[in-house]
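Input sequence (106 aa), recorded before submission:
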Amino acid sequence: MLHTIFICLVIAGFAGAGLFNAIGLAAQQESFVRWGYPQWWCRATGLLELASAALIAFPATQTAGLVIGALILAAAAFTVVRHREFSHLVPIGVFLVGLVAASVTS
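Predicted structure, token format:
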């Protein structure tokens, strides 16, 4: 039961972040450019987040989705630490706690 709750929360989180990044509003694109990525990179990130959410949703591909999600979070954490935008670490940390909880409660 607890595992299902954490999985649903992680799916919702990655799906929401994925939609937000895939839409790629101007402010989001500017952030990615400020971090040294191409303007369109927010859309690529969004698609990866949506793919991760979709993979996590199915038991057969759940592990792959969790691994991809962890890699996305590692890249995000590296980026914001490198650019000293530490306020972005809070949501990354929340996602990480959700991923770990979803992984260990199975």
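Checked by second reader. Residues 64 and 83 are 29 Å apart (CA to CA).
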